[in-house]
Specification:
Nucleotidyltransferase, domain 5; five-stranded mixed sheet
Length: 285
């Protein structure tokens, strides 16, 4: 028997298959699928992805999955049962199936059993005050349209606004359009008429990161993070606690993140690209 743990963001899901204690000599196995978000995606799409994963795992010859713990973006309290049902369908031999928010997963991976502030900065953004066992306070993220300061989607939005409203140089604009092949018309279509606009906006981070030597671009990134601290971390009124981060945006922009934190009176603690290793360690303990 084995335990399957998942950390799912809006773009990607990391899976870890952990053998039972009786098979502890066997290594954990890793899998990756697209992000699974029950708030934004259809049940059909999620079921298809889970079915493909289940088939892949069965073909590896691994012991049957008896326990599934899923942490994911969009798994709000009202969505937990829906996710549990779809996971149970994909892994019918599982005797225990749980679905929790990705925020709780981040808190457990970053803080373990200690008090702290845990944050997610990936395609989306979120944060919480954690008491070592449960989330005790959460500043609502509100999603990429109403909030999500600090996220990849918010960064992409901020970048495009500056690009086409004179906040960045003509050289950056020309380089962007040449390297991506996108025009303003294309961008408007991708954001307002195509699905998963948040993923598209966050995907612009690759171009942004390659141009951090441009001071205007770098200050744009820092400004995105300063907004995150002001609007999401300040409400906890715990400047004494360090802030931990998981997610690709936090990981790749650590220098700018720490600079923004210092400017707002906060300290950045651990930064993880993905919480999956911390979650595996927590499960084994």
């Amino acid at each position: 028997m084995s335990t399957l743990i998942a950390d799912s963001g809006s773009t990607k899901t990391d899976w870890a298959l952990i053998p039972s204690s009786s098979l502890s000599s066997l290594p954990s196995q890793r899998f990756s699928t697209q992000g699974l978000n029950p708030f934004h995606q259809s049940r059909k799409m999620i079921r298809q992805t889970l079915g493909e994963l289940s088939q892949t795992i069965s073909q590896t010859g691994c012991p049957p999955v008896r326990k599934v713990i899923f942490y994911g973006s969009g798994v709000r309290p009202e969505m937990e049962q829906t996710m549990v049902e779809m996971l149970s369908e994909a892994f019918p031999q599982a005797e225990q199936v749980e679905a929790h928010s990705d925020l709780l997963g981040a808190a457990r991976a970053l803080c373990g059993r200690n008090e702290g502030i845990a944050s997610i900065l990936g395609t989306g953004a979120n944060s919480c005050l954690y008491d070592g066992a449960a989330i005790v306070q959460n500043t609502p993220a509100l999603g990429y349209i109403l909030g999500d300061e600090g996220s990849g989607a918010a960064l992409g939005c901020r970048f495009l606004n500056a690009l086409y409203k004179g906040g960045l140089s003509e050289e950056i604009k020309a380089d962007f359009e040449a390297s991506t092949g996108l025009t303003l018309t294309d961008i408007i279509d991708r954001v307002y008429h195509q699905p998963l606009a948040n993923r598209f906006l966050a995907s612009l981070s690759e171009f942004i990161h390659h141009h951090l030597d441009d001071e205007a671009v770098r200050q744009l990134v820092i400004g995105n993070f300063r907004d995150f601290f002001r609007k999401n971390i300040l409400p906890y009124r715990r400047p004494d606690l360090p802030v931990g981060f998981v997610g690709s945006i936090a990981w790749h922009y650590q220098r700018e993140l720490r600079e923004a934190a210092a400017a707002e009176g906060f300290t950045v603690d651990t930064v993880l690209q993905s919480p999956i290793e911390g979650l595996v360690k927590e499960e084994k303990e």
